[in-house]
Write a structure and sequence with these properties.
Layout (H helix, E strand, L loop, with lengths): L1 E6 L3 E5 L19 H10 L8 E5 L4 E4 L3 E7 L4 E3 L2 E2 L6 E3 L4 E4 L7 E6 L33 E3 L24 E8 L8 H9 L2 E7 L3 E5 L21 E6 L4 E3 L7 E3 L6 E4 L1 E5 L4 H5 L6 E6 L2 H21 L1
Parallel strand pairs: 12-20
Antiparallel strand pairs: 1-4, 1-11, 2-3, 3-10, 4-9, 5-8, 5-10, 6-7, 6-9, 12-19, 13-14, 13-20, 14-17, 15-18, 16-17, 16-19
Length: about 325
């Protein structure tokens, strides 16, 4: 049985926890931008954490369920409605056959996650059901949802039940101003010391160009690069390098003007210098930023980044114990 898309929302796509092992071939991991929130939604409905659900950006869809299902919505404060009646966030509930699920206006955050008991049953491509829109790969026909799409549902397991609630301390936190921890490098030495220090001192504002490929930030001081000979094969822009690999989370500053943090659908390489990389534990935070929200970048060591990853793992362990 299926879920019919009556209204698709602004940018709704099928995502799981991503595909790994293909980035060196130019295929990014994709998957949920806020992996933690998707994991929460799946746990609430009794799914394995990596099953496919829907990532909903800014404006929610309207969905008709042609079979009864247990669902949960987490992440951004985008409250669901069942046949017009308010339903809770961060708690599993049942949708009857023929039920219509819609959403209120967004109150906080940017991306909500809808999990359905059993998961969304689109084909597995390169080990994942995630949508990579730029490459028209995976998800539902390689794209975001459109009117009339019919999403197949997998039969739920015995662990599916309504009324399972996420403890308050595990609810996704959404804020209009955050700190993002950064490991400096590989090309931070190309900036003048004063300019690099200014990057970490300034408060940056999310620009309108903010999507699954990358988030652009504005309103900080322009960055200045050291004078240096142009390497063979690099362009004329002071931030140009001979093409190199881009880690997910890496920060490039074309022209030294507006930093771009690459995210889960980013290309795997190019010709801009990277002054640092946002640590893996903080990538979920970026997913919940709206344009005009604020961020500061904070430098951390590799040891601190590893400690943050351990803390992130401990939070997931708490989630699994609670649900």
């Amino acid at each position: 049985m299926t879920i019919e898309v009556r209204k698709p929302g602004l940018a709704t796509s099928v995502q799981d926890t991503g595909r790994t092992g293909y980035y060196h071939l130019g295929i990014p991991p994709s998957g949920a931008m806020d992996r933690y929130s998707l994991r929460c939604a799946n746990r609430l409905v009794g799914n394995a954490e990596d099953l496919a659900g829907l990532e909903i950006t800014f404006l929610g869809p309207e969905l008709v369920f042609h079979r009864a299902a247990v669902v949960a919505v987490t992440g951004a404060r985008l409250a669901p409605r069942l046949n017009g009646q308010p339903m809770p966030l961060d708690e599993s509930f049942e949708v009857p056959a023929g039920g219509v699920l819609s959403f209120d206006f967004l109150k906080a955050g940017a991306r909500a996650y809808l999990a359905v008991a059993g998961g969304i049953d689109v084909p597995v491509l390169l080990g994942s059901r995630s949508t990579y829109g730029l490459g028209a790969l995976g998800g539902y026909q390689g794209r975001k949802l459109a009117v009339g799409d019919m999403l197949p549902m997998t039969t739920p397991g015995a662990s599916a039940r309504a009324g399972r609630k996420l403890p308050a301390e595990l609810v996704t936190q959404t804020s209009k101003e955050i700190e993002l921890r950064v490991v400096p490098g590989l090309y931070d030495h190309w900036l003048t010391p004063e300019s690099l220090a200014g990057f970490f001192e300034d408060t940056w504002i999310v620009a309108s160009e903010a999507d699954r490929i990358g988030y652009r930030f504005k309103n900080g001081r322009p960055l200045k690069f050291r004078d240096r000979p142009r390497p063979f094969g690099a362009g004329s822009d002071p931030s140009n390098i001979v093409d190199a690999c881009y880690p997910i989370g890496s920060i490039q500053v074309p022209g030294g003007l507006e930093p771009i943090v690459l995210h889960c659908d980013a290309v795997s390489g190019g010709g801009y210098a990277m002054l640092g990389t946002v640590i893996n534990a903080d990538l979920d935070l970026i997913a919940q930023l709206q344009p005009n929200h604020k961020a500061r970048f904070v430098t951390v060591s590799l040891d601190q980044a590893l400690a943050a990853r351990k803390a992130y793992g401990a939070r997931l362990a708490h989630l699994r114990q609670a649900l």
